[in-house]
């Protein structure tokens, strides 16, 4: 009888292992990554991007979103902007609505399966409702802060548009909003990390590709210059946290060349063009 019980227990363990599968047997997904420039903001002060910059240098910064394709997914990292109020406040050149710019990379707006929002600033989250079937991924603390405390006395909501806040709430009410609690894998092989603190809980993403892990920093690293000088971004809740995040990006990517900043126009010249406004990162 004891032998029979032990045999049955062993069979049950074997069945459990076969259902879950060892980690090394899980399918490995490699993604393609495309940077898509949908607009340019001309003559932006570098001092507004690199902490400690003393010069009056200015740069025509690239406004970008990133398309991640693989494993049956069309993932968009950030969504750009399109609402009319922003064109009254900013000089915008060479603009294409983000969904139209993404279509130039060969993906229709309703084919975007997932949208990862790095942070709630107008130029990164405003266009989220242009992608009607996407599941939305945002840090839980980012969502909670900007839908509540940021608007209370002592709160900070610079760069956050009320129309976008209401949109995020609608996503949550409709069941499309996924609130991420810190660093974790959100889709096969795709991981998000916090620590840059460009906003209350901004996040960046790592993606496995044919050439290794690529880190898309968004505004947690505005320019290649931030990394080269080990200089924090100029706009952050916590400069020390931002520098630690940059150091961690290096560890994750394994090679600084696989870290992509959020607004550097050089992104569009360092990689091969595959379509108007579109370069392939890897």
Structural commentary:
- This protein is α/β, with parallel strands linked by helices.
- The protein has one domain: 4-Layer Sandwich (Metallo-beta-lactamase, Chain A), CATH 3.60.15.
- Helices cover 28% and strands 27% of the residues.
- The chain contains nine helices and 13 strands.
- It has helices at residues 2-20, 84-89, 98-103, 122-125, 140-146, 162-174, 224-229, 239-253, 267-270; strands at 32-45, 58-70, 73-77, 114-116, 135-139, 177-180, 184-187, 190-194, 203-209, 212-218, 259-261, 273-275, 278-280.
- The strands form two sheets. Strands 6-5-4-3-2-1-13-12 form an eight-stranded mixed beta sheet.
- The protein starts with a helix and ends with a strand.
Show the helix and strand layout:
Elements: H1 2-20, E1 32-45, E2 58-70, E3 73-77, H2 84-89, H3 98-103, E4 114-116, H4 122-125, E5 135-139, H5 140-146, H6 162-174, E6 177-180, E7 184-187, E8 190-194, E9 203-209, E10 212-218, H7 224-229, H8 239-253, E11 259-261, H9 267-270, E12 273-275, E13 278-280
Parallel strand pairs: 3-4, 4-5, 5-6, 10-11
Antiparallel strand pairs: 1-2, 1-13, 2-3, 7-8, 8-9, 9-10, 12-13
Q: How many domain regions? A: 1
Mind telling me the C-alpha Rg? 21 Å
The total strand number stands at 13
What is the percentage of strand-forming residues? Answer: 25-35%
User: What is the assigned CATH homologous superfamily?
Assistant: Ribonuclease Z/Hydroxyacylglutathione hydrolase-like
N-C termini distance? 59 Å
CATH architecture descriptor text: 4-Layer Sandwich
Major sheet: 8 strands, mixed
């Amino acid at each position: 009888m004891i032998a029979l019980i032990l045999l049955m227990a062993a069979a049950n363990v074997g069945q459990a292992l076969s259902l879950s599968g060892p980690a090394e047997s899980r399918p490995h997904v490699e993604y393609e990554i495309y940077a898509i420039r949908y607009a340019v903001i001309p003559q932006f002060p570098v001092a507004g991007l690199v902490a400690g910059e003393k010069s009056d240098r200015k740069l025509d910064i690239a406004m970008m979103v990133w398309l991640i394709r693989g494993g049956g997914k069309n993932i968009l990292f950030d969504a750009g902007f399109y609402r009319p109020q922003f064109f009254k406040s900013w000089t915008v050149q060479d603009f294409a609505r983000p969904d139209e710019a993404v279509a130039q990379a060969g993906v229709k707006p309703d084919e975007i399966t997932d949208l990862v929002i790095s942070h709630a600033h107008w130029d990164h989250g405003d266009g989220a409702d242009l992608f009607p079937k996407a599941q939305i991924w945002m840090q839980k603390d980012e969502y909670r802060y900007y839908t509540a405390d940021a608007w209370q006395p002592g709160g900070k909501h610079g760069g956050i548009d009320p129309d976008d806040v209401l949109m995020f709430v609608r996503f949550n009410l409709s069941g499309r909003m996924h609130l991420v609690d810190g660093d974790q894998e959100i889709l096969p092989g795709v991981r998000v990390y916090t620590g840059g603190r460009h906003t209350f809980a901004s996040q960046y993403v790592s993606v496995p590709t044919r050439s290794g892990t690529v880190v898309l920093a968004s505004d947690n690293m505005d320019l290649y210059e931030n990394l080269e000088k080990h200089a924090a971004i100029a706009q952050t809740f916590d400069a020390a946290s931002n520098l630690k995040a940059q150091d961690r990006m290096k560890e994750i990517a394994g090679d600084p060349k696989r870290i992509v900043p959020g607004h550097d126009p050089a992104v569009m010249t360092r990689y091969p063009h595959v379509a108007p406004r579109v370069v392939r990162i890897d």
